[in-house]
Amino acid sequence: MKTVYHKSDSRGHADHGWLKSKHTFSFAGYQNPERMNFGVLRVLNDDFVQGGMGFGRHPHRDMEIISIPLEGELRHGDNMGNSGIIKNGDIQVMSAGTGIMHSEENATEQPVKFLQIWIIPNKTDVTPRYDQVSIEENSVKNDFQQILSPNADDAGVWIHQDAWFNLAKFDNGFSKEYKINRSGNGVYAFVIKGSAKIGGQVLNERDGFGIWDTESFVLEAIKDSEVLLMEVPMQLPE
């Protein structure tokens, strides 16, 4: 098993007043050659947006973009005619493909906190698409809840990549083995709340931990915890 540990306070930071963002990997003004990606996981931003503010309409291309709200409500709009609100308990995905224009704005006067995640796809120039689903209605305690996969018929949303995301909401002291879905994949664990342990490494809130070259590992909660497990191919597309 190979691992990499990223403490919460080692992340890049951007403060634009209305937007405060922590970058696990190089993004915008934060450039760190040792923190470019974890396999095809290219961006993991921990964003805070002031009430009534947001990202105006802007373009993306050939990227799978996932948003997971943690607090508040985020209003989405795009040039495909999609519009709506996502909130805690939802997951949103966009396949940018040949090109998409979209906006994300705080829908209320209360702050919004959300995770913005970019995955490098396994195919380019796909037809752009948008989807959002509720993951709260299938929420489980002390188990892995799949919220993303490569398969449209599976639980959660799907993307153009051999990736699987799971939420783990574990009570203090609970542990369970996670088995890798696909040979050559690794898992990047991100602690949303609480504290957990993987392979002897203690992870606190907003810490990240990558694991690869293994078929499985055990996740143990050492407080009541919520952990996002992002399983992704470790080899970048050619």
Automatic annotation (TrEMBL):
Tree of life domain: Bacteria
Domain Pirin N-terminal: 10-119
Start and end residues of each Quercetin 2,3-dioxygenase C-terminal cupin domain: 147-232
Cofactor note text: Binds 1 Fe cation per subunit.
Matching Pfam families: Pirin (PF02678), Pirin_C_2 (PF17954)
GO molecular function: metal ion binding
Key words, A-Z: Iron, Metal-binding
Gene3D superfamilies: Jelly Rolls
Cofactor: Fe cation
Record-listed Fe cation binding positions: 58, 60, 102, 104
Family, per entry: Belongs to the pirin family.
PANTHER family: QUERCETIN 2,3-DIOXYGENASE
Protein name in UniProt: Pirin
